[in-house]
Amino acid sequence: MNFSKEANQGSYPFLLPDLPYNKVDLKPYYSEETLDYHHGLHHKAYVDNLNNLLASNNNLHGKSLEEIIEISSVDSSMASIFNNAAQIWNHSFFWHSMAKNGGGKPSGKLLQKIEEDFGGFEKFVEAFKAAGLGQFGSGWVFLVIDGGKLKIVKTANAEVPITMGQVPIITSDVWEHAYYIDYRNRRAEYLSVFLSNLVNWNFAERNFLAHVSL
Ligand code: MN3
After folding, report:
1. What is the 119 CA–ligand 1 centroid distance (Å)?
2. In the prediction, which pLDDT does 80 show?
3. 8 CA to middle of ligand 1, Å?
């Protein structure tokens, strides 16, 4: 998937990738303060933790982030490595899932496929919000391709759809740290604004077309 190159994730030691926009670009929907904490502290902590966990794990040096996620996802003794690696992947994917002047509707083949698989764009919007709101506790809501169909999946904690054979198209972070500074406990409002004003449909279209043209 070309997302790895875009996020420039490399291998051990992993670096905190830059945001794909300036920290003021998502205002007033997603504040600079939230990005300072969420990217500069939360995402960075996952990178530091993973590097510390891998320091004595020579056999994982040189592996890509996706390879580390795959290997650790099936070995319960590697749960800490999985959690931190998957959270790095999820956050990098999430930053790209938002854009300045985002929101609205996708176009072309992706819009057509959303209408086909959800029975209309508005039905997709409602289903995405309901899944994000219905995730009890921390987690993520994703639009994915699964077996040729677009689906909405919610994952708990660090879980990431790439370990389930699904192709992520877009995601929203529903951990409280993702929205508490700007929206307090109003997760529904955050999800609604995410879809109206933040979601990066250009990124979603690239992910969708890269997959369907294979
Ligand atoms: Mn987060």
Report:
1. 30
2. 98
3. 19
